[in-house]
Amino acid sequence: MKNERQICEHCKQNFEISEEELNLYKKVGIELPTLCFFCRIKLHLSFWMFGKFRKGKSDLSGESLITVLPASTRYPIYTLTEWHSDKWDAMGYGVDYDPNVPFFKQLQELQEKVPHPHQNGTKNTKCDWCDDVWNSKNCYLSRSMEECEDLFYSYRNVKVKNSIDATICFNCEKCYDCGDCHNSYKLFYSRHSRDCIESSFLYDCRNCQNCFMSWNLRNKSYCIENVQYTKEAYQEKLKSFQLNSYKSLQTFKKRFEELAQKEAVHRENFNFKAHNSNGNYLSDVKNCHNCNTINDSEDSYNCIRGMKHKSNIDANGCWYVELIGNCANCVNSYALKYSNWSSSRYSEYLDVCIECDYCFGCVGLKKKKYCILNKQYTKEEYEVLKDKIIEDMKKRGEYGKFLPYSMSAGPFNFSNGFFYFPETKKEGVLKLGGYWEDVDESHIEGMQTNELPDSIKDVPDTIITQALICPETGWRFNIAQNELSFYKANNIPPPRYHFDVRTKNQLKYLTVLQSYPYKCFYCKKDIMAYYPSEWGYEKIACEECYKQNIA
């Protein structure tokens, strides 16, 4: 078997499918892709709304709800509790297959009739103002998390507690404004650091305590800009920094970026315990290739944003899955193909289906077997009709493709895809059948954030009753009581920008999917690293030299 070359249907660029990929496509049992790796991810993530939190009402009961789905959503919205209840039955929307109409058109017509839940997740307590949250408690305006508690304005975290503005962090507590940090306590304004305590502005540090504005440190305490101080001298110097001042803080943030550009040594990737694997942000993986932000996984290709993968290919935003292909946002699934937001087995072309087996082209079903377009069949009838549909789809060039942009949940510029592909233009999305939303909130009244006191010490308790206006987007946001208490307890000036803008700024450093050619800072050999040239990083090292000089 040889490598196969293709031309992407969307971007028209050439791409190659390796022999190893071909073997896994065959094992999983899916058709070869007609889109390149990046266009596949872009399409998958367009179905995963980052959205903008808004209040709405259930189309079933009129009960109030909070969702990231747009007000102009194409289908009815029920509260999550209602959606899982027996107050309605998705089988009531079942239709017969029409061989004269493209299958995707029939599936989309069904999708637009079947109710969808207002948010995703299970086993949560007091997480109403959240989305895609699992087994968590007391979280607010946060997304994509598991086993988190008392988390504010955060994104894609696992086992993080009592923290604000945490992005893609694991096992952290009382942290603030951190990205890709692990096993840390009271860590502020930091990136790519592990096992650190009571420190601020750390870049790629490990096992550090009471350190400030430092990089590449290992097992250190009381360091400032990588210079060792005594405990007493460190504490005195820290007092002089006026970290309670927003203006002073901006100076330190600028210095932090300068040090990242000029002084920090950057490893070619941020993989950790990655055996025979390649990509970025891989942790505890084996035989995973061309993957990004994947944990505890093995034998998979072309997957991003997930964990507990086994023998999967083109599975993005998926957790606890095995032998699935060309799927987005699926969990607890086995042998699932071309599906979205589902947890099922031996099925194809599902949208928000739960615990289904042997279903094809269904929406909103729960614990069903042998269904097509939400209509029940016998096993024998199912097999015959499924084969007929696949035959028709192949003739029309549909079969093997993921759901089209027209079936995505909302505007692309409010999806997770926009974080990974911020250069995407409105015209391009609309041309592919997708959606876009231009939001104008200039009419909203509130306090401009430049009117806030510079020091947290001068911020009155009444600020929690004041609407604030983000200077970048014009969106309104508030400071909650628990949030203000956190800021005052930790001497942090309140933010000036909307929390979604803050998350977007953090994600800029954590969503790079493409590697770029560099020469190792030490040995000068050619390497591929995940840093766009516009970041201006000057010291990038191959894995071997990084381990010798830093780790």
Automatic annotation (TrEMBL):
Protein name stated in the entry: Uncharacterized protein
